[in-house]
Amino acid sequence: MIILSVETSCDETSVAITRDGKDVLSNAVLSQIKIHERFGGVVPEVASRAHIESILYMFDEAIQQANIQVSDIDLVAVTKGPGLIGSLLVGINAATSFAYANKIPIIGVNHLLGHIYAAQIEGDMKFPLLTLLVSGGHTELLLVKDHLEIELLGTTLDDAVGEAYDKVARILGLPYPGGPLVDKLAHTGKAIYNLPKPFLKNEPYNFSFSGLKSAVLNLVHNMKQKEVPFLVEDVCASFQEVVTEVLVEKTKNAANLLGVKQIIVAGGVAANKGLRFKMFERLPDFEILIPHIRYCTDQAAMIGIAAYYQYQKDKGTGDYFIKGDSSLN
Ligand code: KG4
Ligand code: ZN
User: Fold this and answer.
1) What is the DSSP string of 46-94?
2) What is the pLDDT of residues 50-95, one digit of tens each?
3) Which residues are annotated as a binding site for substrate?
4) Bridge partner residues of 130 (DSSP)
5) Which of 8, 175, 218, 271 has its CA 20 to 30 A from that of 302?
6) Domain map (residue ranges) of the chain
7) CATH fourth-level superfamily of 124-290
8) 3 C-alpha vs ligand 1 centroid, how far in Å?
9) Is 114 in the pocket of ligand 1 (CB under 6 A)?
10) Domain 2-116+297-313 belongs to what topology?
11) 297 lines ligand 1 (CB under 6 A)
C-alpha cells in the first residue's frame, strides 16, 4: 500500500511517500527555522503563510523523489492535530483537495501517534511496549498495548522537555530552536554545576521541568551579577546531565513496573545524543527502538507509517472532511 502523507502542524512543511507502514520512499521536508529565528520562536500566522507558499512544491518533490505516479497512491494521510490550527489547516486543505481530485481515500492522523510510529521504520514494535515521547510540546510516558491501543501513564506537570531546552537556550543567549545547540555544546562542556533533579518521588510516571529551568536561570543570573566567569558549555552539560538522568531513570522504573520488554523513545528530543547514548547504556536488558535522528523531529514519513496501521482499523472518511484540532491529545 502506497501512502502520500502530509505534516504541517508547526514549522516544517513536509510531504512523504511510504509503503506498507515500513519503507520510506521519499520524505520532503522544508524547515521554516530561518524565517522564525529572528523572532526567537515560531510565530503562528507567519508559519501558516509559509506553509501555503511551499506546500504544493513539497507534493511535487515527494512524488518525484519516490519515482511514482499519482495513480500509484492508495491512501492520503494528513496530520489533524495537535498543533497550530492555522498551520494544520493548510496541510489538511491541501491533502483533502489532492485526495478529492484524484479520488483517493484520506485519513487524519494524530501527530503524536506519528512520532511513536516513526520507531517502526527502525524495527518492529513488540507489544506491550513503553514509549517515552519527548518533544517541544509533550513529555509523556505511554503504554502501547497493541497497534493504536495506547494508555497515557503520565505527563509533565509544567514545561515539556523540549520547551525547557529551548528556554535554557534563550537564557544562555543561543538562537532558536535551542535544543540541538544545547545538546551540541553539552558535549564539550563539563557538568560541574549542581542542579536539582526533579524525580517527583511519589509520581513514577509524571515529570516536571520548570523548577530545573528556573534553577538554570538563577545560576546564570547570579554568576553574571557577581561577574563570575563561566562557560556556556558547562551550563549546557550540567542541564543535559540532569534532564537525561531523569528521563532515563523514570523510563527504566516504569518499564520494570510494567514488565515490558521493548521501549520506544520518540519526538524531537529523542534526537538528543546524550539521551540516546544513556538509554542504550543504562537499559541493556530492554530492546530499545529510537528513530533515526531525521525521523525524530517533525516530518511527514512518520504520519504515513502511522496511517498504514490506522487504515487497518478505520478505512478513512468517504466525505473528504477532516477537522483540524489544535488541542487534540
Ligand atoms: O517533535 P518536534 O520536532 O516538534 C514538536 O512536536 O514539538 O520537537 C521539537 C523540539 C524542540 O523543542 C527542539 O528544541 C527539540 O525538540 N530538540 C532537541 C534536539 N533536537 C530537537 N532537544 C534536545 N536535543 C536535541 N538534539
Ligand atoms: Zn512533533
Assistant:
1) HHHHHHHHHHHHHHHHHHHHHT--GGG--EEEEEEESS-HHHHHHHHHH
2) 999 999 999 999 999 999 999 999 999 999 999 999 999 999 999 9
3) 133-137, 166, 179, 183, 272
4) 143, 263
5) 175
6) 2-116+297-313, 124-290
7) ATPase, nucleotide binding domain (3.30.420.40)
8) 26
9) no
10) Nucleotidyltransferase; domain 5 (3.30.420)
11) yes
